[in-house]
Amino acid sequence: MKLGLDISGGDFAPRANVLGAILALEQLPDDVELVLIGRENDITSILEEKGVKSDRISVVDAPDVITMEDHPTRAIPQKPNSSISVGFELLSQNKIDSFASTGNTGAMLVGSMYKVNAIPGVIRPCITSVLPTVNGGDSIILDVGANADCKPDVLYQFASLGSLYAKNVMNISDPRIGLLNIGEEEGKGNLLTQSAYKLMKESKDFNFIGNIEGRDLFTGKADVVVCDGFTGNVVLKQAEGMYTITRQLGIKDDYLERFNYENYGGTPILGVNSDVIIGHGISNDVAVKGMLCLAYDVAKSELTQKIKEAFK
Amino acid sequence: MKLGLDISGGDFAPRANVLGAILALEQLPDDVELVLIGRENDITSILEEKGVKSDRISVVDAPDVITMEDHPTRAIPQKPNSSISVGFELLSQNKIDSFASTGNTGAMLVGSMYKVNAIPGVIRPCITSVLPTVNGGDSIILDVGANADCKPDVLYQFASLGSLYAKNVMNISDPRIGLLNIGEEEGKGNLLTQSAYKLMKESKDFNFIGNIEGRDLFTGKADVVVCDGFTGNVVLKQAEGMYTITRQLGIKDDYLERFNYENYGGTPILGVNSDVIIGHGISNDVAVKGMLCLAYDVAKSELTQKIKEAFK
User: Fold this and answer.
1) A114, B108, B110, B163: which has the highest count of C-beta atoms within 10 A?
2) Closest CA–CA distance from residue A74 to any residue of chain B (Å)
3) Are B59 and B145 within one domain?
4) Residue A68 contacts B where some CB pair is shorter than 8 Å
5) Which NCBIfam families does this one have (chains A, B) (predicted)?
């Protein structure tokens, strides 16, 4: 298995990315190879400095960088020698099995949509995030920002995608799917959730448990929380903001510490033809390692293949 | 000034409501009278038990109760002798200056819309909630649930209503209005927030400072956070849920304690012709006292009159 990693993306590139790759190499099985994509000189000098020489690491030179200032839709055609463009090129040629980056999220989404494409039948690929639950488990929420406006059938598909992810990557046997809403009973909500509820309650594709409210996000009431990308993004950033505040206040608690992004590393883009993982722009080496471990878990689970079969 | 209080609403009625009224009486100025609306026998026996005899307290008998199970739109016509129905009747006859209840929120909204009516020019009245900020202040967010689906011009009006509330009740001289969104720059967001941004940035009615994200909800970046009622309700319940979890975990912190609903008591329905205040169903006596103090502040500020003038 070959996992591609963008070395030029993120706030602490290239150093944190190369160091993260070194950490991941120690943790991942021997048959996993890492393909580091970025400025070759930068990469080799950090590897040399750390005395790392492994035939499980290869380097692909990509001299250019897509920055956070680049326009997502224009960046890839305008910068064909950037690490993100080269990564998608390798992925579409099957020279890597997965591509992970902490760089420009918009460019990663655009690359996923136009270089590897949505799986036939998937209306809108989406991204997910982990919700640490107070009982010690993890739930996920999707979409968290790829699709600000959604139709009811799109929410229905998010439920299917989330259920497949929870089953195959998180090893939850019969994931409970909740619709994020502003009341528990059927009939509550805005026009979108009212319609989505009607579609979802008839589903044989997943185990729908009904509406869940904002206060249930962290209680583990649902394994998969479905919402439009606008609401999901607000939820995610509110949780991040609250975690940041508890840190500033010096509050130390094992549960709250689980909101530290370092623990998650990244999220796959669900519903595209190849494995694409995006990570937080502020990722340090531990977070990059986490992102690569997630890339491995996703590839090993054959999630993408299973989504293709489910949407046939 | 006469403040009406529903004695039959909420989980701990009638006792918590009467005790809250007694606490409020001690705190409010001498020219404030309280009108307690509910089962007369219940009320007088609690007052007697507490040895309270004051010409600042009067009782209006309302033998029936609108429960949480009653349908919001049907409850008021079906139960004309309920405390909520009688309260709105007194309010529409100007026999009280303000009506506060911790009972069925839906029925309170319906009563506000059909018994006291929206102020001419206000498309959709709304409800607001306090966001305690980490720097020690308070922001507000609106709408938090009265309007699940909103148009851009409705969000614009929420900004006006929130600005008037912040100025007149919270005494913030030039309130900063932020639009809750999923990116900071203009052009980010869903169709609703993209359009609302365009309307709001041209505004001379309030001081628009642009988009704010979920992570800024508790930093005091904006004094007034504007969003549709679906998003606002999720934000509010997520914050409540996180507060509950920190309590369960035994985390004690002065800032987090500010999320305790007891500190706020209630919220006015903004944009209707008379002062209506709704409180949390789980309100104890301290929360009921807080609701009455808020009712006093709102009435004293002449907010409703100022909204009428602004929307002329």
Assistant:
1) B108
2) 16
3) no
4) no
5) plsX
CA distances from B176 to A121, A157, B12, B217, B236 (A): 45, 39, 37, 13, 20
If you average pLDDT over residues B236-254, what whole number do you get?
Answer: 95
Q: In the structure, what pLDDT confidence band is assigned to residue A262 with cuts at 50, 70 and 90?
A: confident
B160-211: pLDDT as tens digits = 999 999 999 999 999 999 999 999 999 999 999 999 999 999 999 999 999 9
pLDDT at A80 over 80: yes
Per CB-CB distance under 8 Å, the chain A contacts of B217 are 238, 241
Residues of chain B with Cβ-Cβ distance to A235 below 8 Å are 214, 234, 238
B215 interfaces chain A, CB cutoff of 8 Å: yes
A229/B234 Cβ within 8 A = no
Task: Quickly count: other Cβ atoms within 10 Å of residue A127's Cβ.
Answer: 28
Q: Rounded mean pLDDT of A249-271?
A: 90
- Is residue A186 in a domain? yes
* Cα A34 from Cα B240, distance rounded (Å): 44
CB pairs under 8 A between A and B: 119
**Contact assignment for A219 to B241 by CB distance below 8 Å:** yes
- Alpha carbon A276 to chain centroid, angstroms: 8
CA distance readout (Å), A273 to A84, A123, B17, B155: 17, 13, 60, 39
Asked if the model's pLDDT at residue B96 lies above 90, the reply is: yes
Q: Which residues of B touch A231 (CB under 8 A)?
A: 230-231, 234
Contact assessment for residue B156 and residue B195, using Cβ atoms and an 8 Å cutoff: no
Query: Quick check: is B204 in a domain?
Result: yes
Domain of B66, CATH number, reads: 3.40.718.10
Q: Nearest-CA distance from A55 to chain B in Å?
A: 42
The partner residue sitting opposite B255, judged by closest CB among A180, A190, A249, is A249
- Give yes or no for a cis peptide into B143 (omega within 30° of 0): yes
Do B108 and B229 belong together in one domain?
A: no
The answer to whether position B112 is within a domain reads: yes
Do B238 and B133 have their domain in common?
yes
Distance from CA of A105 to the nearest CA of B (A): 12
Domain that holds residue B79: 1-122+271-312
Q: Residue B304 above 90 pLDDT?
A: yes
Q: Are B232 and B155 in contact (CB under 8 A)?
A: no
Number of domains in chain A: 2
